[in-house]
Structure to design on (340 residues):
């Protein structure tokens, strides 16, 4: 009797421990969300603007992490999709008088189609060859935006100026505070959707293609369509981020979307942590604030200081910030007690 009840008690204890961990995780996320909502009211307007850009970058990094971290496709051209999303929002707002919030889904859908179409021919390429193809996309995009026959739409080298939206319903908050809260709401929605996607059947198929493409094909997974769709969804996220970033900055110009932006996105993904949803937030904070910190430390050689920060992160946290946080949490005393 006791022999048969012992496994049952162990299973029940494991279930209770899992429920307790989920409850603590949910409470922690609720507190973090509350802190994020209160943050723009505790900092200056400029810092609220910086945090808004960081949220937009987090959405872009999450999309790139789906492609690179979860699916194994390396992209050095996501700055192009960020630019497409930004210009879609700017053109719709300035030339068609669309409300700013309505431009967000359109920018995402256009980038979804563009990413899917680019992903189809890119199926023939893997590894560094795919990285070079996407790098070419990042190089070509600013030049296409300057093309004289597109100047009526893109504004050419002069770019497009966007009017910053006012808070709705007469809310007694500043424009920067409202844009932060609006961007935060969009970011939460995008992160929830990504979590559900990656933790489900589609997410498992995406990871299976990354780890064992031949085995995934054998199990009936259509590698070609999944890889193309992953590219498209990744571009969708980046396009939404680009639209949000353009609305926050109030200006778009071709030189704002150079190759360095695409490289910064890849740096953010690696620093934050590959195949990690939370890593997108850490990586966004890194690419948004570390260059400013480096510039404050040394006006003469800010990028040298930036390189030191980057090397230190990779040396101390080879799995990214998210991996470091996960490892540190696993060593907490209460975790050891639960295991015991």
């Amino acid at each position: 009797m006791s022999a048969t009840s012992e496994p049952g008690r162990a299973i029940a204890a494991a279930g209770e421990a899992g429920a307790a961990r989920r409850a603590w995780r949910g409470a922690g996320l609720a507190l973090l969300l509350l802190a994020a909502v209160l943050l723009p009211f505790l900092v200056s307007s400029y810092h609220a603007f910086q945090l808004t850009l960081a949220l937009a970058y987090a959405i872009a990094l999450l999309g790139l992490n789906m492609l690179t971290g979860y699916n194994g496709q390396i992209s050095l051209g996501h700055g192009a999709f960020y630019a497409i999303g930004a210009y879609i929002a700017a053109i719709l707002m300035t030339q068609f008088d669309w409300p700013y919030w309505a431009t967000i889904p359109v920018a995402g859908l256009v980038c979804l189609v563009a990413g899917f179409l680019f992903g189809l021919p890119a199926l023939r390429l893997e590894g560094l060859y795919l990285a070079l193809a996407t790098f070419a996309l990042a190089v070509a995009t600013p030049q296409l935006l300057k093309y004289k026959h597109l100047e009526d739409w893109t504004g050419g080298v002069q770019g497009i100026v966007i009017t910053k939206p006012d808070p709705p319903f007469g809310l007694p908050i500043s424009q920067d505070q409202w844009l932060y809260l609006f961007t935060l709401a969009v970011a939460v929605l995008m992160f929830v959707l990504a979590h559900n996607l990656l933790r489900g059947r589609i997410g498992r198929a995406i990871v299976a293609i990354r780890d064992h493409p031949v085995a995934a094909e054998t199990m009936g997974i259509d590698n070609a369509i999944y890889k193309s769709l992953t590219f498209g969804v990744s571009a969708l996220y980046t396009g939404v981020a680009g639209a949000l970033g353009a609305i926050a900055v109030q200006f778009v110009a071709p030189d704002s979307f150079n190759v360095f932006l695409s490289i910064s996105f890849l740096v953010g993904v690696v620093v934050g942590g590959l195949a990690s949803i939370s890593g997108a937030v850490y990586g966004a904070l890194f690419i948004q604030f570390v260059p400013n910190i480096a510039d404050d430390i040394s006006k003469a050689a800010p990028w040298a200081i930036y390189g030191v920060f980057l090397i230190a992160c990779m040396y101390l946290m080879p799995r990214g910030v998210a991996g470091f946080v996960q490892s540190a949490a696993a060593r907490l005393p209460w975790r050891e007690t639960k295991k015991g």
Q: What stands out?
A: The longest strand covers residues 160-161. Confidence is low (pLDDT under 50) at residues 336-340. Strands lie at 160-161, 251-252. Residues 294 and 305 are 5 Å apart (CA to CA).
